[in-house]
Amino acid sequence: MEYFKKILRFATPYKRYGFLNIFFNILYALFSALSFAALIPMLDVLFDKARKVFTPPVYRGLGGLKEYFQDYVSYRVTAFSGEDEMKGLVLVIGLVLILFLFKNLFNYLAMYFITFLRNGVLKDIRNAMYRKIVELPVAFYSEKRKGDVIARITSDVLEIQHSFLSILELIVREPLTILFTISVMFFISVKLTIFVFIFIPIAGLIISYIGKSLKKKSDRVQREQGQFLSIVEETLGGLRVIKAFNAEQRFYNTFKTSTGRFFRFSNTLLNRQNLASPTGEFLGILVIGILLWFGGRMVLVDQTLDASSFIAYMGLAYNILTPAKAISKASYGVKKGNAAAERVLEILETENPITEAAAAVEKTTLDKGIRLEKVSFRYEDDYVLRDFSLEVPKGEMVALVGQSGSGKSTIANLVTRFYDVGEGAITIDGTDIRALSKKSLRGLLGLVTQDSILFNDSVRNNIGLGKENATEDEIMAAARIANAHDFIMELPMGYDTNIGDSGNKLSGGQKQRLSIARAVLKNPPIMILDEATSALDTESERLVQDALEKMMANRTSIVIAHRLSTIQNAHTIVVLQKGEVVEKGTHAELMAMKGVYYNLVAMQTLKS
What would the mean pLDDT of 169-193 be, rounded to a whole number? Predict the structure, then answer.
């Protein structure tokens, strides 16, 4: 029940609906028991002439309460019907109909109000998960498969609704229905009811035994669902590569293997779960059969129970079966829901290592510049950066060059605080970036990456991502600086054109220029360019490079460069090897050294 309690905290904003549900469930349970108890006077009056009472009964204390109640109802029925027995029939049928009407009305009202609670909790869990997914650092998703995260926010949360939240409907109604029904059964016959209690624990133990392994089996099903959703996500993301390498069959086989495991795990789980209903029903009918024998003996042999009371008693006993079956299925639901709740809570309770300082500083301007002081960092075991120091004065452009794996992109990830430094510090105007609020830090930064990350939305909304409520003129001005306005106006709906998933309706150069326009509109004091032109053809590179130069004019910039021809005007070029600085200077100074940078330029010149 630990997971159930944690999930239940999401129900707090909807507790009024919970209280209304409880109130109407109490009424439902009460009328459920009374509707069967109403059969006794009807049977007495219709089929047992001796039970007709012509004088008002006298109350003689609690000991004779049962007889007083039966005689009083019989008296009222007799007085109403007189000599016309059909009048009595109409009265008792009307009484039974009214009781059943109220029972079902209260049942509907109880379910009506619990719907708001269930769907509200579902909405809030999904919102909390999405917020957590956005808040967690980039490093978290290098370990988790995206499809598994998608499975948790969709199917796992839905499983919580079907299992845990279904219990909220049963937690009051079914136990109270059983309680009120058993109270009436005691009222009719104490001896027969005690006999019933001998068999209920036995049935409960059998049902409990069946459900013990459900959590483990359900956990396997949920994990496998996350696995094949990950395969779908990877397939859609890499469809061009899959087709280009004729790998469709290979990916199909991988997916088929995963769904085969899901098929086997689901069959095992559902067959075990489906065993609950027939087992519960058979055990219930077994108890009814024993009751028929034992109660029939009390009517026919001992004559300690009248026939009408016994018939009503059997109806009440059968009335217990439905809530008892519901409770047994709910116990299975808890075990099955535990697995889903565990996976959901694993995301919700994951600690974010990129923490906010207790009294975080809000900073909106850059006055002096950025410093990296003896920064060391490693993703796992090996250091990517070791004792790395760098100064980026305000208004200057610093370029980072080196072979792949030298730590260039890691510096961008550390400055943007996608990761925290292992040792050393990064400061802006002398303030450690860990002391700044994450929002204000990233408000100072603009980022353009090698992979143009765009969204399935209009051109306008993609450019305006970094500035809420940007005007039409501001968006167009940013697009002009990024050399994007002309091609945008050629699109079918101009700035309102939807660019498709990841901007796939555009060319690589067009996508990159939209990314630059987005950064220009944000107008941050610091710009970070992570190999922004490396994936482009010559013509697109020229347009993008021109846009970048206009954007970086008089702006503090850190440029990670693959094509060295694009950074010759940088104030400082830093050459990295295995996370350490090997050369530093202007383009002319480094070329004069004829060292690592000179060789890199020479290699690229030969290739071109």
Answer: 79
